[in-house]
Amino acid sequence: MIYLRLIWSYLKIGLFGFGGGYAMLALIEREIVAPGWISEQTFTDIVAISQMTPGPIGINSATYIGYVAPGISDQAFSNPVFGVIGSIICTLVVIIPSFVLVTSTEHFIRRHKESAIVKGVLSGLRPVVVGLIASAALLLMNAANFGEETYQIICSIAICVSAFVAVFFAKLHPIFVILLAGVAGLILF
Question: How far is CA 58 from the centre of its chain?
């Protein structure tokens, strides 16, 4: 049944996806796109929408995928009620492992935060998280995001660089930059 498969996938994502939403993207893609629950294009759209909506990207994507996956996997589950059930299941399953892990280890870590072993473990995790985030960036550099034609690729890179410069250097509000990028995409594509 689709719900058991979703529970298993999001349990793995919740248990092994550390470092935040971007660090989890490669794992989410492997668990969700590979079985055919959603396409690569839909995955990149989910990432874009999850970035613009309030809340962590991992939870937002779990909620959306839980909603659409039952209907995509079996037409008998195309009723929105099954989607809402899938959304609730995926959201809870991706949150519960982290919640349990943090609440069970918080006392230990706080008590031993000056320990060389704890400091070493946390220091060792930092480069891993950076690598996972870099992996997510490479994962999103695909034809679904940048297009297949040279014109599309050049325009997409120009929008990407312009958005970075506008937020980082010009200090424009990110919502304004998102709106401008949407208008630029509408005009150019």
Answer: 4
| Residue 64 vs residues 46, 56, 139: alpha-carbon distances, Å | 8, 13, 19
For residue 120, give the 3-state DSSP assignment. helix
Query: ∠ CA 91-95-96 to the nearest 5 degrees?
Result: 115
User: Mind giving me the DSSP string for 24-49?
Assistant: HHHHHHHHHTTTTSS-HHHHHHHHHH
Contact 144, 41 (CB under 8 A): yes
This prediction has a pTM of: 0.70
The DSSP secondary-structure symbol of 54 reads S
> Where residue 112 falls among pLDDT bands split at 50, 70, 90?
confident
Residue with tokens 């609730």: 88
Which of 67, 68, 98, 64 lies closest to 85, judged by CA?
67
97, 57, 74: which is closest to 3 by C-alpha?
74
